[in-house]
Amino acid sequence: QVQLVESGGGSVQAGGSLRLSCAASGYTYSSNYMAWFRQAPGKEREGVAGIHTRYSTTIYADSVKGRFTISRDHAKNTVYLQMNSLKPEDTSMYYCAADKADGSWTNPILYKYWGQGTQVTVSS
């Protein structure tokens, strides 16, 4: 059974940093796409960052480019999201997603597996 477990969320002041982790079990991610999404109350789920776990190519939403970094550790079967210079508008529930079908990485419908989410709150 595939499980994605996120951790690392919390509350931080604007300008601070957090590192989110997504540990995958029952799933070999070595040749597929994984991504971080976020969803605030009343808003659509949006893609934040994506990584091809085989080639390590990465992509970011414009809103986080230069501040967030996605990476992976094959040995730990884990994907990370390092978030720096956090802003109040980054406040959201953050989700890890895996096993994407063909199509835009920002389309949540294309991902087969999801974690339960971890809350990030940034205060001004």
What is the structure about, briefly put?
The protein is 0% helix and 52% strand. It is mostly beta strands and 124 residues long. Strands 2, 4, 5, 6, 9, 10 and 11 form a 7-stranded mixed β-sheet that branches.
Query: What is the H/E string?
Result: EEEEEEEEEEE
Which structural class matches the secondary elements? mainly beta
Radius of gyration: 13 Å
Sum up the overall morphology in one term.
globular
Number of strands: 11
> Low-confidence parts, pLDDT < 50 over ≥5 residues?
none
Helix residue percentage: under 10%
The biggest sheet, with number of strands, parallel, antiparallel or mixed sense and barrel status, is: 7 strands, mixed
Q: How widely separated are the two ends?
A: 40 Å
Count the helices. How many?
0
Mean pLDDT score, rounded? 93
Strand content: over 45%
Please, could you describe this protein's structure?
- The chain is mainly β and 124 residues long.
- It is built from no helices and 11 strands.
- The protein has strands spanning 3-7, 10-13, 18-25, 33-39, 46-52, 58-60, 68-73, 78-83, 92-100, 111-114, 118-123.
- Strands 2, 4, 5, 6, 9, 10 and 11 form a 7-stranded mixed beta sheet that branches.
- Strand 5 (46-52) and strand 6 (58-60) form a beta hairpin.
- The protein is globular and about 40 Å long.
- The relative contact order is 0.31.
- The model has no long low-confidence stretch (mean pLDDT 93).
